[in-house]
DNA sequence: GTAAAATTAGACAACAGTGTCCAAATTTTT
DNA sequence: AAAAATTTGGACACTGTTGTCTAATTTTAC
């Protein structure tokens, strides 16, 4: 089956090449992130980012040097932070829950709310969908260090739950993708990635998605 | 239940306010569409669009008058064409199939391949996700004439299939959303919206998604 | 074939953004 | 308190884009 990995082998250390930015640099990266999510990689303006960050334009050039390097820094920052929050959520995957539906719903909320809905997750998804063709750096970073690595891990979680008798799965990686697709299906996306869904909306989407997921994959012997 | 509509009542006429563009205008709109999908609404250049359309810049201004109006024209065009192709696919929803799984898989392919994957569908999804906040015209047009209207229709299709005894549904609109989410889940999106998935990939994604869908919703008495 | 309409190429001013330089001001460190 | 590092604001040349205008050319309609 290929999913027989152990949770404790996961390396939770953040990717080494992304120093935790603080101070002005942090403000610049956050502002740049907002700008990218709002306007796209091609339409961002250094002036606007500097103004949004409450910093002079020269400071941006001092820290990042170049628009290209600014973009790369944003990509790395978003990837690292998003991966870290995803790892944190995955670490809470239920092992032997009393109530599978409740446990999976809570896990879905933990996955959706801080990971898919926060600024980093939205920015990353946006970037991957839109810019992976133009910035090879992006896809490379994602595959090497980011949540791209985490998908097999999520699949492993479901395989474990199946091995414990809670689920009946043919293919754990399909189940993992369908799980995420189902809990995301009911999130209101029409408002655009700039608007964070409410907690209630997330809760409802998770519950509805998990119910369908379990209709498909719950073990019948329980 | 509220889904008791009849197929023959659907108005297949295209929205009245979008004349079928031909000739140079068609070329301009197509080029603009490609540019928007590739670069975003903020980053498009009239010069580049004109060059891509094989047309002089002045002709763009003659036809559309303004960048703002160009964007609005693209939105209307994309919405109308996407809605038309979605309607055409929905009209082929299976009624009393011998093999539900095969019939739904074929329908899923018809839904995915021309509707979600063609340039209009991708452009529309892209626009909705990204620009609905800034261009109220977009959300308005979508809700009034576009595929936004079609969701209840798809839900009605599933309700009918359930009424015919093929499915067991609590909520047909949830089932419709989950159906689309599942058949879309396995499409390779990491390549970005500029790359159209291969026919085989679409076929595989549809089959996998439908299998899970039927695990959840297939009637057990058949 | 001729008149009308559409299209083209090119020039043009106005504007916005980039990236650099520098001197003054501010903050941090010693 | 002095020294060092960082930040600021403004000026600058440069580039690319917009939208307008013109005269010449091509296409279409009669």
What does this 3D model show about the protein?
Two copies of one chain form a homodimer. By secondary structure, chain A is mostly helical. The first copy, chain A, has one domain (8-217): Tetracycline Repressor, domain 2 (Orthogonal Bundle). Chain A is built from ten helices and no strands. The longest helix of chain A is centred in the middle third of the chain and has 24 residues, at 67-90. Chain A starts with 22 loop residues before the first helix and ends in a 5-residue tail after the last helix. In chain A, 45% of the residues are buried. Residues 1-17 of chain A have low confidence and may be disordered. Chain A binds chain B through residues 39-40, 42-43, 126, 128-133, 139, 174-175, 177-178, 180-182, 184-186, 189-195, 208-209, 212-213, 215-217, and chain B through 39-40, 42-43, 126, 128-133, 139, 174-175, 177-178, 180-182, 184-186, 189-195, 208-209, 212-213, 215-217. Chain A binds a DNA duplex (30 and 30 nucleotides) through residues 24, 45-47, 55-59, 61-62, 66-67.
